[in-house]
Amino acid sequence: MKNLNEPTQENVEFMIEEIKTKLRMATAAAMQASSFSVGRYEDIKDLYEVVASKEKFSISEVEALVSELGQLRK
Q1: How far is CA 58 from CA 26, 50, 61, in A?
Q2: Which domain of life is it from (predicted)?
Q3: Residues ≥6 apart with Cβ < 8 Å to 68
Q4: What is the full per-residue pLDDT of the chain (74 aa) written as tens digits?
């Protein structure tokens, strides 16, 4: 398990990739992990923890999470 307590670009990219994988995002290719800033680390980590804590998501949940992810981009 990664130590996600350090706000590094590497951790941001790891969390974004994990979120995309878990949500099975159809638009994952358009959502590059490098488009996210360490400055939004806590927000990204919060979103990551929500996604990591659930096994399945409804369509509306996926849409809401993807929308939130979009707002966190640089």
Answers
A1: 15, 14, 5
A2: Bacteria
A3: 47
A4: 678 999 999 999 999 988 888 887 656 656 788 889 999 999 999 999 999 999 888 989 988 998 898 899 87
Q: Is 19 exposed, middle or buried (0-12, 13-18, 19+ CB in 10 A)?
A: buried
Asked whether the beta carbons of 8 and 38 are under 8 A apart, the reply is yes
Q: 46 near 17, Cβ under 8 Å?
A: no
Amino acid of residue 35: S
Token pair listed for 22: 């878990």
